[in-house]
Amino acid sequence: MSEVERSARRVADSDREKVAQLLYEAMGAGRITTAELETRLDAVYSAKTFADFEPVIADLSPMSTGPEDARGGRSSIAVMSGTRRRFDGMLPSKHVSRALWGSVRLDLRYAEIAADPCTIRAVAIMGGVKIVVPEDFVVDVRGVGLMGGFGTGRGRAPRRAAVGAPVLRVTGFAWWGSVKVIRKAREPLTRGRRR
């Protein structure tokens, strides 16, 4: 189903309740005021299609915190869409990845970790975040799945890490969605293999 087709689909009461929960969480975190919550809830409960949700949650994506965000290094987001990102070179020490009714795929097979550990905070709400890591990374998964899954997916079994191996910590939560960390072997980086 294309993004346009999904946006035009009619919503059910259960869909409205899920968006309302997001708004309550945003208010609890201090990102919107109580007055904004009430206004947005009115829009959510009168929504007829998924497209009606977009203006209600569009500004709830991660905020930029520095020049690295302009290059997309510190955050990845997909709202009712898909985002694919491959990291070449050094990973930022912290990265936030959010999938809201969408999917994010992070390919770290060509990446290096300078800061030890590097932390990716992955949040999947009715969506999915897939993180592909090379075999030589030590991966520490500390997320929570609420009516969803958070953990390692299928892939190569981790080999015994060398002393001083790079450490990747994955935190966050999945709510009616999934966050999966999958191991794959590093492959030669060629012009034709961009994703």
UniProtKB/TrEMBL annotation:
InterPro entries: DUF1707_SHOCT-like
Pfam families reported in the protein's UniProt record: DUF1707
Top-rank taxon, per record: Bacteria
Ranges of residues in domain DUF1707: 10-60
Protein name, per record: DUF1707 domain-containing protein
